[in-house]
Design brief:
The chain has a single domain (about 5-105), classed as Translation Initiation Factor IF3. The chain has 4 helices and 5 strands; from the N terminus they run E-H-E-H-E-H-E-E-H. It has helices at about 15-25, 40-55, 65-80, 100-105; strands at about 5, 30-35, 55-60, 80-85, 90-95. The longest helix is centred in the last third of the chain and has 15 residues, at about 65-80. It is globular and about 35 Å long. The N and C termini lie far apart (about 40 Å).
Length: about 100
């Protein structure tokens, strides 16, 4: 059975914004993979780096269902990113770039 979770976080996104981000995420490939070793400092650093570069990323987990849910929550808490959705072994995270970075582009 396929489970889909939509999780709202502390930063408010409107429903149209969430739909747009989820649509963009459909075209993405997982950038970071969390392997059997779990959430190591190296994995967290990679996630931080990718969120800084891209804002919207997909992460693939190798763990079982309960552990994936726990790891996704830890990633969101550790990085300050929003867990937009989790489908099977893939989770989508969003963290907007700081205002200074957004105006520089």
């Amino acid at each position: 059975m396929l489970t889909v979770r939509l999780i709202m976080s502390h930063t408010k996104l409107t429903n149209p914004e969430i739909r747009k981000l989820k649509a963009e995420a459909q075209r993405l490939e997982p950038i970071v993979r969390v392997g059997k070793g779990g959430l190591t400092a190296t994995v967290v650093a990679s996630i931080e780096q990718e969120l800084t570069l891209r804002e919207l990323i997909k992460i693939r987990f190798s763990q079982e269902r309960d552990e994936r849910d726990e790891l996704a929550g830890k990633i969101a808490e550790t990085t300050g990113a929003k867990l937009l959705m989790q489908v099977g072994k893939v989770a989508v995270f969003y963290r907007p770039k700081p205002a200074a970075d957004a105006t520089a582009q």
